[in-house]
């Protein structure tokens, strides 16, 4: 790969690729949904790609290499850059995984001294992300900094398998394929309880707030429905783009996901990929190139890289922050375990929310029945809030409402449709107005429970 980039030049390879994505698709129909009782994808979301590419191609060609200032920074560097004091904690789960968690202890914008322990907030990321994924907004608008500015103690998680949390008491993530034998189920029953207990111990509080996005919400559902005592430790949970029942998911990613649903195909993919789809950082090391390099500050203005994001996650040009896109694509994706995708694929195909399906024989050995048990959302009693987007094609509105109906009566304290008809799955962490549309409401709701 080095030979290609040096002898042919990156720019010569770049433009056919960019032009392909720029001209890929233009759908303008109104959004419709598959009936709840039909286990099939919703029709594709309406999508009108931005551009045109031709009007700024010359500018892209002539101005390459501009970098976003936070593009290659890790979470500690980002926190230090913006003067937020923090601590690094390692948390070991019951099954031996070692997680790195960052605790923001104060704010440069808040001089008030707390009279007692600060209320703590556990902030948990989604699939393909990590703790650095919460810092894509400018400093005064991203959620962790807003929480810290408001006087909360903020704990940024890094789930097992991410580049921040590859440790284990006995397994090597790089050479031992059994390290990767887990999905969001294990994150829910081991990671969330371990991090929660660590936060409670360090903060000296009785309950914490939980904020999760995407897979972070899946872990919340599993943890609070499967682990005894978890509901008593959560003051309230705020779930952005809730992911439980997802049978109507209609992203192009559905096709790739479904290939991994059968257990034998998952096993084959695991062997081929050594358990994971590697992070953008690994590609940067191997190829000296990342998504942030391809989608530099100029290219993103030409309706190229943003169109690919719209295709995968839902169209919302009004919320796309082109200035931040190089930073986003330099960090996304983080590591993605093959079994995580396989588990989601099974729930997509079945239109259920259940534990991993190993096939009848192994299911009988693992669960005592030929089919995997479903997660019982009736067991969740902690006050819970949903926030969902109308253009979210990974967590479609009709699936969010199916999940809401599965919750115990009185538990769901808020089921909020974001007041922007084009809000998509990634807008919850990248959208220009995420603070006005979501974060400010979370802060208002938290005041109901603040001790």
How would you portray this structure in words?
The strands form three sheets. Strands 3, 4, 5, 6, 7, 8, 9, 12 and 13 form a nine-stranded mixed β-sheet that branches. A two-stranded antiparallel sheet has the order 1-2. Strands 10-11 form a two-stranded antiparallel sheet. Helix 6 crosses helix 7 (215-226). It has one domain (2-26, 58-446): 3-Layer(aba) Sandwich (Rossmann fold), CATH 3.40.50.1820. It is of the alpha/beta class. It contains 18 helices and 13 strands. Helix 7 (215-226) links the parallel strand 8 (208-213) and strand 9 (234-240).
What layout of secondary structure does this protein have?
Layout: H1 2-7, H2 10-22, E1 26-27, E2 47-48, H3 57-62, H4 75-81, E3 86-92, E4 97-104, E5 120-124, H5 143-149, E6 153-156, E7 167-168, H6 184-203, E8 208-213, H7 215-226, E9 234-240, H8 253-258, H9 263-273, E10 276-277, H10 280-287, H11 291-294, H12 305-313, H13 325-331, E11 336-337, H14 338-350, H15 360-367, E12 384-388, H16 397-406, E13 412-417, H17 427-430, H18 434-446
Parallel strand pairs: 5-6, 5-8, 8-9, 9-12, 12-13
Antiparallel strand pairs: 1-2, 3-4, 4-6, 4-7, 10-11
Helix pairs in contact: 6-7
